[in-house]
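As agreed, record copied across for absentees:
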Amino acid sequence: MELKLGYLHYIRIKGRWKYLYPALDTTGQTVDFLLTAKRDAAAALRFFRKAIRHHGEPEVVTIDKSGANTAALTTLSANKPEEEGMTIRLSKYLNNLV
């Protein structure tokens, strides 16, 4: 399975601004999402753990060049052998299928 972190949206919900993290499959369909007040490594880690818990660990993850996303994925794959880890693709445009 390939998981793509879709374009991160900054939206207003009930008068408060939130970040919307969408997870997309290879066809561009949303498979999971997370609303959070901050865009940091902790929020990205929560998002990836939630997506993996519900959909299994992907073979390939495509993210933008955000340091928070990279840090979260590095944390997730820190204790795994390299052959069991996820392939991380950094691309500004490959994840924007919508």
Summary: The chain is about 25% helix and 35% strand. The two ends are 19 Å apart (CA to CA). The CA atoms of residues 11 and 17 lie 6 Å apart.
